[in-house]
Amino acid sequence: MARAKIALIGAGQIGGTLAHLAAIKELGDVVLFDIAEGTPQGKALDIAESGPSEKFDATLKGTNSYSDIAGADVCIVTAGVPRKPGMSRDDLLGINLKVMKAVGEGIAANAPDAFVICITNPLDAMVWALREFSGLPHKKVVGMAGVLDSARFRHFLSLEFNVSMKDVSAFVLGGHGDTMVPLTRYSTVAGIPLPDLVEMNWTTQEKLDAIVQRTRDGGAEIVGLLKTGSAFYAPATSAIEMAEAYLKDQRRLLPCAAWCDGEFGLKGMYVGVPTIIGANGIEKVVNIKLAKDEQEMFNSSVEAVKGLVEACKGIDDSLA
Ligand SMILES: NC(=O)c1ccc[n+]([C@@H]2O[C@H](COP(=O)([O-])OP(=O)(O)OC[C@H]3O[C@@H](n4cnc5c(N)ncnc54)[C@H](O)[C@@H]3O)[C@@H](O)[C@H]2O)c1
Ligand SMILES: O=C(O)C[C@H](O)C(=O)O
After folding, report:
1. From 5, 78, 92, 171, which residue has the greatest number of CB atoms within 10 Å?
2. What crossing angle do the helices spanning 13-24 and 39-48 adopt, rounded to 10°?
């Protein structure tokens, strides 16, 4: 069987890391696309030259031409600009919206059957815009954020409980911004929900609240440390987890920015919700029951995302 083809739109920090991971995991042949001349070609060659030591079978090609992504099975979009210290993700909306238009049109013309994972910020609005510009089916266009936010939550929890990250599961829903909703009731250590662990005196409510806040600020914490850009190792790993679920029809239950039309009482919008990813893309949005306080937090996150989508419509008439 022919290898899968993975197109990476944007060959910056995340794009290069995605290419490296996709090759090492032998998910398929990789095409790195960028408007910057030389960058995708240089990164593709550099990663290909790691193949003899790493012993992977995958070809890597760098390009500035959309025609090279033709027939891609998966497109992962990181094209655009990251934030700098002092900025919010929402400050990137105007500049990255224009990028989504070019990328959406490029994917529609060359890889209309692909499963498309958007990473560019502000995530929930950009995945919505990318879907609109590309015209691809909603279940084939999804945003990466919940896997990353949940991974950060899991990491911080594993430090607090001094247990393996493997035994910590967590769910972060809502928009990928300050209003994201880390769900403590649905997060566990080896199946024991976090509120029970507080009752067992394994941690305190104050410590748990601080971890929830650190998770919400997880992106800004790294931006503040790096100063010249944002996180890229964990974001790339998160998107690869989603791509692998699609390519291998794993039916993973992962939190993603997915199209909700009826689920969670929403009428046609993208926001972070639990999904099942398999060979058809988003196979299902898992409509979990939220408690009153969780629903209120989710609602305010939904309102924040709606505001960004309205801002996109105000900038680009074709989206209105
Ligand atoms: N969703 C998430 O959880 C998450 C996590 C981390 C970063 N991000 C976002 O991902 C994006 C990329 O981050 P990065 O660190 O890789 O940035 P980066 O600056 O390292 O790379 C972005 C690349 O996009 C390219 N580019 C710009 N316009 C383009 C266009 N029209 N077509 C093709 N390529 C284009 C640039 O040349 C650059 O190489 C940012 O918007 C960042 O905020 C999102
Ligand atoms: O914080 C950012 O700007 C990048 C990304 O959204 C992240 O959460 O790391």
Report:
1. 78
2. 30
